[in-house]
Amino acid sequence: MDDLPNVVVTGASGRMGRILIGALQRSDVLRLSGAVEKPGNPWVGRSLSDVLPSAPEGILVSDDPLEAFAEAQAVIDFTTPEATVAHAAIAAQARTVHVVGTTGLSEGDLAKLRAAARHATIVRAGNMSLGVNLLVQLTRRVAAALDTDYDIEIVEAHHRHKVDAPSGTALMLGEAAAAGRGVSLRAVEDRGRDGITGAREAGHIGFSAIRGGDIVGEHDVIFAAPGERIVLRHIATDRSLFARGALKAALWGQGRSPGEYDMLDVLGLK
């Protein structure tokens, strides 16, 4: 028991934070050692067991990530781009594994994560489920096999509270499709259509986002040509699958050399 890696959950009061805490409580290979929230959050300073009755005793929710990370071997981070970038610098200083499930990161944010990865192990993925990462691989292979007679459209659906679009998973799939065709996604992406847009450009990769209700996550990659369509689909019905992937990544990262990794590395799919 004493040899288990200590794990800190950031964004502890959020939807994914609570799920991660529950998953860590059930884990026999990792141990929850800390919970972090932003300053001013009503959980800060309280015992985690007071706000989550099933949580272990003795863990205070902190707004000081440096103090929490210093005692941990891994940090699991499903927060905001701004918070994740700040956490990356602190995790690098503490030399702890940083598992990042945050989406909506800008190119500038990603550059800062790459800089942090020179000193620490970062495992980052727009989606941490096994099924989605298999879908990414399939998308790349199908895109490589088909020419531009097949238009590629990525349709994603999430709950009404999701703040970024396209989803991180949709962008993963778009990157995979572009890589299969040997092009840059930025050069061929089409993220929105409104009004008189003209005919679809050959070779472009389109994105559509649906937001509503409590949809956990649905992603379709459509290859459409005259006379036929190929549809690759993944449907998530339970957020605990993302937590399972995050815990797997936190354990996998122990003892790894500094660098930026993804779930394909964790799952041995590269």
TrEMBL record:
Residue intervals of the Dihydrodipicolinate reductase C-terminal domain: 131-267
Residues that, per the record, bind (S)-2,3,4,5-tetrahydrodipicolinate: H159, G168, T169
Top-level class of the enzyme under EC nomenclature: oxidoreductase
Superkingdom of the organism of origin: Bacteria
Keyword Phosphoprotein: no
Gene3D superfamilies xref list: Dihydrodipicolinate Reductase, domain 2, NAD(P)-binding Rossmann-like Domain
GO cellular component, one term: cytosol
Binding site for NADP(+): K38
Active site: H158, K162
GO terms, molecular function: 4-hydroxy-tetrahydrodipicolinate reductase; NAD binding; NADP binding; oxidoreductase activity, acting on CH or CH2 groups, NAD or NADP as acceptor
Subcellular location as annotated: Cytoplasm
Entry binding sites for NAD(+): G11, A12, S13, G14, R15, M16, E37, G101, T102, T103, A125, G126, N127, M128
GO BP, sorted A to Z: diaminopimelate biosynthetic process; lysine biosynthetic process via diaminopimelate
CDD domains, per database record: DHDPR_N (cd02274)
Pathway terms, separated by semicolons: Amino-acid biosynthesis; L-lysine biosynthesis via DAP pathway; (S)-tetrahydrodipicolinate from L-aspartate: step 4/4
Domain Dihydrodipicolinate reductase N-terminal stretches: 6-128
Assigned protein family: Belongs to the DapB family.
Functional note: Catalyzes the conversion of 4-hydroxy-tetrahydrodipicolinate (HTPA) to tetrahydrodipicolinate.
Protein name: 4-hydroxy-tetrahydrodipicolinate reductase
Biological source species: Silicimonas algicola
